[in-house]
Amino acid sequence: MQSTILVCDDEKEIVEAISIYLEGEGYKIIKAYDGKEAVDIMNSGQKVDLIIMDVMMPGMDGIHATLKIREKLDVPIIILSAKSEDNDKILGLNIGADDYISKPFNPLELVARVKSQLRRYMQLGNIAGSSSQAVFKCGGLTINDDNKEVFVDGELIKLTPIEYNILLLLVRNAGKVFSIDEIYEQIWNEEAIGADNTVAVHIRHIREKIEINPREPKYLKVVWGVGYKIEKQ
Amino acid sequence: MKRSILIILHILAMLLVLAGFVSLRDYSVRGRGISWINSSSFEDSIRFSEMVSSDIAGIKRLAVLKKAFETDNSLDEEKTIVTAESMNGGIVYTVGDILTLSKKFGYTLDNDSHSLVVNRVSDVNNYQIRVTYKEYDPYYFQNIVPGPSQGVMNIRDLCIETLRSIAEYYSLKAIYDSPESNFQYAAYFLTDDEEELVVSNAEDLSSSVQSYGKYLVVSSDYSVTTNIVPQPDNIMQGINDFPYADLDGNVLEIGIDTMYLYADRYRAAADSFEGYIKNAYYYLAMLIGGAVLMLITLVPIVRDSDVAKTGKVFVMDRLPLESMILILAFGAVAVYGMFRIGLYNFMEVLAEEGSWNFWCKTAKMVIVYIFCVVILCSMYRRSYHGGVFYNSLLRRGMLALADDSTDMIWSTVAGYGLFMIVNAVCIGLGVWCSMNAMLSRFYVFAAIMLFVFAGAVDIAVYVLLYGRRKQRAAINKALKQISGGNVAYTIDEEGYSGGELEAVRSINSISDGLSHAISEQVRADRLKADLITNVSHDIKTPLTSIINYVDLLKRENIEDEKIKEYIDVLDRKSARLKNLTEDLVEASKASSGNIKLEMRRLDMAELAGQAGGEFDDKFAKRNLEFNLSVPEEPVYILADGRHLWRVFENLLNNAAKYSMEHTRIYADVRKENGNCIFSIKNISQDRLNISPDELTERFIRGDVSRSTEGSGLGLSIAKSLTTLMGGKLVIEIDGDLYKANVILPEYNEEMDEAQKNEPNNTI
C-alpha cells in the first residue's frame, strides 16, 4: 500500500530533496510551502499518512500548523527544524509531534524515522492482539519472550543472547535505572569486580540496533553517571 | 679614622672628664665657682664641710651608745640593754649578761682595735628569743611592728650585734673623748628617759667657740651660727635620735682649730689638700680637655656612621620625633630607676657615704648623656629621610590642620573635649561634695547625683561609640563582600547618620553600579550567544540543502573520477561546516554560561565506564587499548550528567582521534583532597607544539585552528562546561604525552542544600 506523505517547508529545494528521497522509497508526496497551505491540504480531506513539518516558516509556522492539525487528526507528524536545542525538541514533542529531526539531517535517518512512524501508525494494534504473558511492550518496542524476538515498530531486530537479556531486564523494569555493576550482576550472575567495558559496549550495540539515531536514543536511555534505563512510555 | 677607635677615644675622654670632675669636686668650695682654684684653703672646701658633717653624725651616735652602755663615763656592766621574751617568759639582759653569754659563744672584744674577736665556734645551746627593746638601737622599738614573729632572733646573733655596738662605742669614744683634738665640741641631748646627756671633749666651750677658725653653734632656738660653707646638712637630723636638750644656752657647739695643733684627721686632710691644690690645674685641664675630646670625637661618630651613609633606618627612626624622644626619656628614667635599686647597694659598699650623692649625680649625667647622643644620632639619620622634623607630630599636626578635613578634626576634638569637660566637672564637683558630706545631707545627695550623671554620660558615650563601631563593622563587611565578588550586597541605610551614612550611601551606589555593570555584561554575553545561535539557524537551512543535494549527487551514477573527487570534497567540507555550526553554538553558550544545568549526584566512575563503552569501537578501529581504573566504591560528584558526558566525550574523542596507533590510553578516576579527578593520558601522534592554554581557549582567543576534521572547539567546550559545573579542566602536555584532568569537588549533602536554595541555576 502506497503511503502519502505531506512535506511542508518554505525552502523549496529542501522539499524537493525530501521528495526525491521518499519517492525513491515508494511513497507518494504532497508538497506544501507554509503552515497555512499544509493545514488547508489536511482540511481538504486528502488522505495523508504522515506529515513532515518545518518549524520556521513565514505566515503560519510549523508549531501553529501542528496544533491546528492535531485539533482534528492524529496523523503522525515529524518536526524538521534548524533549531536543535533541547527546548525546541521538547516544545515540538509536547504540542503533539511524534518525532523531531534537526537540520541539517541525514537522509537515511529521515527515511528511517518516516518508516518507523508509518509502521507504528499502520500496524498499531496488530501485535497487541496476540499479547500473552511473555510479551513486553514499551512504546514501539516489543519483546516476545516466548520466542525471544524483539520488534521495533513492528520490525524484527536481531540481538545476541546477552543483548537480549540486558534489554529484557531493562524493559521488564521500565523506568528503573540500572548501573553497570547491577546489570553485570543480574545478567552474568557474578559479582562485578573492577572496571570492564563489557556492559557499556553491549548497551551501545543494543542502541545501535534498536535506535534510529543511537546518539539520541528513544528507548534505551543513558543516564550519564548513574546507569541505563528504558524510558517508560 | 676607624669608627671603633673613635668610639674608644670618646669613652676614654668621657672617663677623663669624670676623673677630672671627681678630683676637682673633692675640695671645691660651694658658691665660688671655679675661682677657689687660685686661692683657697682646706677650710673652705666641701671636703671640710663633709668632715664636720660626719663628725656631727659621730657625736650623735656616741651619745646614743653612751646612754646605752655607760654610767659615769665608763662601761657599766649592770646596765640593762635588751629586754626580750623567751619560752620561759620575759628576760632582761644587762651588758654583763651579754658579755658572759658572748664568751660562752666564743666572742670577745679586742680592746686595742675595738673589734670583734671570734675565739672558737662553740655549740653552746643557741635559742630563739623575741627581742622587744634594744637600748643601743633607739629606732628599734619604732621600726618593729608588734606581732608574733617580729623581733625574733637567736641569742647568738643578739650577742654579736651587741658586741659590735660596744666595739663601736669604744672606737667613737677614742675619737671624740680626747680633749687633744683640733675638733672641740659640746652637745646637749635629751634622752628618751627625759634626762639631759652631755657629750663633749672641751670645757666651757660656749664662751670661746666663736674664736675658733671654724665654728658651728646651734642655739636653744635651733638657729645655726656658723662660718662653715657649705653648712653641714645633718645638724638638725639629731633631733630624730635624741632631741637636743631644752636649755637656755647652746645645744651644740663645735669649734675647729684651723692651726691644726694636734696631729689628727683634720691636719692630715689639710696637708693632703695642700698637695692637692697644686694639682688642681691639671685636674681642670683634664676636665676641659676631656670634654673637648668628647665633642671632637662625637661629631664624626654620629656623622660617619654606616647607618647615615647607607640610609639604613632603625625602628626608632620611623617613630615620630616627639614619640621617640618621649619613649627614650622613659627608657632613661627606667634605667636610672634600676640603677638606684641595683647599684645603690654596691655603692653603699664601695663608696663613702659622703660621695654617694656625687655618684648618683654622675650616673644621672652619664644616662642623660647617652640619651642625648642616641637622639642626636637618630636626628642625624632623619636628616637623610626628608629632614629632621619630617616625621614629627608637630609637622603632622600642622599638615592635618592645613588639610581639607579640618572640620572633622575640630568636631572630633570638640566632641572629645566636651566629653572630658563633663566628666571632669562632674567628678570634680562630686569629689568636692563628698568631702563636704559631713556638713549637710544635700552634699551627699548632690555627690550621688553628679556621679550618677557622669556615669550615665559615659555609658551613653560608650553606647554611641559602640553603635558607631558596629556600623563601621557592617560597612567593612559590605566592602569585603563587594570586593569578594558579591557585588549586589547593599546596606540598609536606616539607623546610620553623619559620616557613616555617607559611607553607606557610597557603598550602595558602588554596589548598584557594579551589579548593573555585571548584569549588563551578562546580558551582552547572552546576546552574543543568542546572536550566534540565530546566525547558526540561518546557516543551517541552506546547509541542509547543500548536504542533501551533495548526497543526491553522490547517488547519481557518475563515472567521471574528477567529478567524484569534487563531490567527495563537497561532502567532507559540508559535513565539517555542519559540525562547526553546531559546536560554535555550543561553545558560545558554554563560555557565556547560557546553559541550563541539572545538577544531581553522579558516580564519576560509572560515567567513565559508560564513556569507555561508547568509545570501544572507535578505539578498536585505531588499534588503541583503553585502560580504565576506577576505585571500587562510587566516586560521587554533583554535576549535570549530560554536560559532563559531553566533556568526557570530547576528551575521549580527542584521544581516539589524535593518539598514535597501537598505543594505550590510560584513564582513571580517583579522589584527592576533597576533589574527584578523571584523568586521561595518551600518546599523541603528531607533535604537540601548542600550549595547553591555546588548546582550551581557541574560541575565546580566536587562534588559528588545526586543519583537521572537527571544529577544534571540543576542548574549549569541555573546559567551559567543567567550569560551569564548578570544576576545572587541566591539560598537561609533556613531550608527546597528553594528559587531561577533569577536577570536580567531591559530593556532600550541603551541596544538595545549596542546590535547592538556588533554584535559578541558569547562569
Describe this structure in words.
The complex is a heterodimer of chains A (233) and B (763). Chain A is an alpha/beta fold. Chain A has 2 domains: 4-123, Rossmann fold; 126-230, Winged helix-like DNA-binding domain superfamily/Winged helix DNA-binding domain (Arc Repressor Mutant, subunit A). Helix content of chain A is 41%, strand content 20%. Chain A is built from 9 helices and 11 strands. Chain A has helices spanning 12-24, 35-43, 62-70, 86-94, 107-123, 126-129, 161-172, 180-188, 198-210, and strands spanning 4-8, 28-32, 50-54, 77-81, 99-102, 135-138, 141-144, 149-152, 155-157, 220-223, 227-230. In chain A, the strands form 3 sheets. Chain A has a 5-stranded parallel β-sheet, sandwiched between helices. Chain A has a 4-stranded antiparallel β-sheet with strand order 6-7-8-9, covered by helices on one side. The longest helix of chain A is centred in the middle third of the chain and has 17 residues, at 107-123. The mean pLDDT of chain A is 86. Chain B has 763 residues and is of the alpha+beta class. Chain B contains 23 helices and 20 strands. In chain B, strands 10-9-13-11-12 form a 5-stranded antiparallel β-sheet, covered by helices on one side. Chain B has a 5-stranded mixed β-sheet with strand order 15-17-18-20-19. Chain B has a 4-stranded antiparallel β-sheet with strand order 4-3-7-8. In chain B, helix 17 packs parallel to helix 22 (714-724). The longest helix of chain B is centred in the last third of the chain and has 58 residues, at 498-555. Chain B is elongated and about 165 Å long. Classes of the chains: A alpha/beta (233), B alpha+beta (763). The interface between A and B is large, with 36 and 43 residues.
